[in-house]
Amino acid sequence: MNTTALTDSSRNMIEVTGEGTVAAAPDRALITLGAITEKASLSEAQTENAGAVSSILQSLFQLGIPKEKVQTVQYGIEIQYNYKEGVQTFRGYKVTHLLRVTADKIEQTGGIVDTAVRHGANTVSGIQFTSAHPEAYYNQALTMAVHSSRQKAATLAKAMGVALHPTPVRIQEASQSIEPRPYQMASFAAAAATPIQPGELNISAVVKAYYSYS
């Protein structure tokens, strides 16, 4: 418990920190997947990778994913080497093209992954679950944080034997946390449909409040 009693020129005050956390069911999934291609020839690597990504995109669009919900988040070309007994030998090129797919219906997550894999995706680097409208949950957490600060101040005032003024003199938002929940893929390729469990989001708020007492 972070609490401090202090005195200024006009009044006695108690400084407290209040926390609040709300559990929310996620309603949006962010899926990062794509194709990684390695070839001795750069042009061959680019061509094969472009074909795989094009196939992935078409399969997603046919699945009903809007084009604006799919975007490239990484594209890169790397030179690959073999190392043996301290000697570097050129192996080829690696082309990486990753897409981020936003699914507004999280029950589609497993189907999106499976469809992409069937049409050329050989990497699924991550799935994150989040809320399309986190503000309402955060406001609930913020309200809980204010109530928490008041309870702490009342407890401290009672221990000090003083009368607490219930309305804070000053209150400020200290921090907030609305983080997507990551999902670690055990395997991106499976014979059966990939099961996805979104779990819950924890949305938190912290406030610092100053209460006067007499």
UniProtKB/TrEMBL annotation:
Pfam families attached to this UniProt entry: SIMPL
Superkingdom to which the source organism belongs: Bacteria
Coiled coil: none
Gene3D superfamilies the UniProt entry points to: Protein of unknown function (DUF541), domain 1 (3.30.110.170), Protein of unknown function (DUF541), domain 2 (3.30.70.2970)
Protein name: SIMPL domain-containing protein
UniProt source species: Paenibacillus ehimensis
